[in-house]
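Translate sequence into structure tokens.
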Amino acid sequence: MTDPIQQARWRLILGSDCQLGGTGLTGAQARMDQSLGFLYDRELAGRNSLSGDAAGGRQGGLDPSALTVPDWINHIHELFPKQAIERLEKDALERYQLDDIVTNPEVLQRAEPSQTLLEAVLRTKHLMNQEVLAAARILVKRVVEEILRKLAFPIRQPFFGPRLRERSLMKIAKNFDWRETIRKNLKNYDAGRRQIVIHEPRFFSRQRRQMKKWKVIIVVDQSGSMASSVIYSAVTASIFHGIPSLQTHLIAFDTAIVDLTSDCADPVELLMKVQLGGGTDIGGALSYAAGLIDNPRQTIVVLITDFFEGAPTHKLFSVCRHIIESGAHLLGLAALNERAVPEYDRNTAAYIAKLGAHVGAMTPGELANWVAEKVGR
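Result follows.
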């Protein structure tokens, strides 16, 4: 291989053990190599620790002292494009459990906001002191704002239809309907004067569609595998909270139940109160939700879970049957994220569907359309 650029790229991919010949790495390439080695040589050396020591094997062009996690974060932000940074941080968290990324305030302030980092914050925030929590909250806010920017319109749009055009007795200028007036008076066209003579002016009132207040109870599993669904549930609940036709509740559960309804207006506060992990008692959570139902025929219960029940399933099936027979709508979602890739206990989900629940996978926008159809926009 004679092309030095291609040779350097392969050298960075394969690591210091590869023998490609040539003059080796210099300058920024050597710094990239040291940064990659800090992370990926952990695997080569059989390391999977939480320490910030640089792994052996690769020698960069910086000072010979070992990198720390803050140094590494700074280096990758200087050396790599955004997409590569997100992948490196994702691997650090998920593959090598380098939790310093979300427990060190200096690192949190420098890290690239992403859903992976947000999920890591949710898993580790119980370990954080107040200084770290403050930095984490800023990161959570930035990620949530980006998700809100993407989801606000597709979720709100189905609930705000066009204005109804109804006849009005208020004959004022702002209510004048010139299209309908022309249509109704075409028969009065005066060919000599080449004018339409208006005998019957038309007026209409501008009114938005009025919908009855429906209760939407979102019940979300906060076990460790459901991090992505918890994030999108919190954001979706906050958007639903701002829709006048809906009364929204948000319930998070593992073996315990946390009613987060009072914080629905603030998705950041919602997420900072979530604690991922623990067992799963789906039946207990649905029993709590059932207690919130006062008008079943105008209530939708949205259960977001992987359907792996930790408690006896007969309790879960019993409460599902009770909710459905009451006349309320029960929707079981195996995922609630923008990709809607479900991993769930199909046997449990199938039995709940057999009882009469709607079970599937939806993006937040699809959920909004489903709810809007039920409430009869």
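Note: The radius of gyration is 29 Å.
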